[in-house]
Here is the input.
Amino acid sequence: MPHTRNDGDIYEVFAQHGSSTPLNHVGSIVSPRRDTAWHLAKETYGRRDDLVTLWVVRRADMIVPSPEDRNLLAAKTRMPHRQPGFPTARRRDRAAAAETAAEIAATASQVRDGAPYDHRDAVGGAGEAGLGDLWLALADDLFVLGNRLGARICDYIDVEEALAVGSIGQEALAHAGTILTLHGFDQLAIDAWFFDREQAQWQVSRAIERLTDWPSTVACGLVVAAAVTVLAEQTAEVGTDPALLSAIAAVREEQLVHLDHWRRWAQALTAWPETEAEFTLAYAEVTELAGDVFGGLPQGIGTGALPGGPAPAAALHERLVALVGGGPGSRLPARPQPRTAGLGGSELADSLARGRVVRDTYAAGVFS
Here is the structure.
């Protein structure tokens, strides 16, 4: 009886030919029946060589990327800080961009005076807090969270958890940089924004001050990841620039992974009798302070590629409550609270001090 072939008949074959070799994709086969597919693959790809392992999977059951996922897979543009030679390349870029020590000093001086915009596109800011203002405030949160997680990498005897914390910390810093790039900042201005601003010019959430112990870090990481996810979804709803939407989608996908990681930690800390009370208290305190996550103040900075207009802070806060308000003893307020510039406590102060110490130890021109 004639049979019309479709993707359900196609199987991808993976084989390992020796105990010291990896499992590789070796080809495809067509089989109308699942129970004969493996045997057909064995005869096709293992007739002459001994096989250690043979995997056969139906193509229709595989999860594969669509053409729209191309930018999510482009690590060199999405996560350049993970590429070999990145530190050396960055130093060369800085040295080429900063032609004289006087230019470097002028940039830092303007930042300290509250105008770090020489190396960014000039776009007028709005008088009312908009999406761009909220993104800038979250960039401050991500920067401090990434720094604090970096200090915790060596706290674990579990290698997998140390790697996870390091990865989340790296991506938090990378996402903070991406946000400024979407505001029109170039690399010199991004560095100046994060390393040369005085603490009084920062707009971190009050929750950042609670990054003092592991239960509070879990709660704060969960809140920040949820907030970035919510704001990314809102930006995608109103944005039209394909490049912007691609960058925001990449940030959202990675923050969803972070959110899932922190949720698993929250569940574990709640389930263990030894940590339940401590985590419940930390979660209550962090969520109460996190009422200002979507209370960013106008910063008078153009939004670059980000869509303009006021941000629906109340609606965003409501979505945040839906994501994290069900935790143990959550005290997340019903409405968003305004942020206050100059907070952050010792956590922000330590992050700024460490960064400046490192920059000061390099030769002139290495860092702007």
About this structure: Residues 358 and 367 are 10 Å apart (CA to CA). Strands lie at 10-16, 24-30, 53-58. Confidence is low (pLDDT under 50) at residues 97-109, 111-127. The chain has 13 helices and three strands.
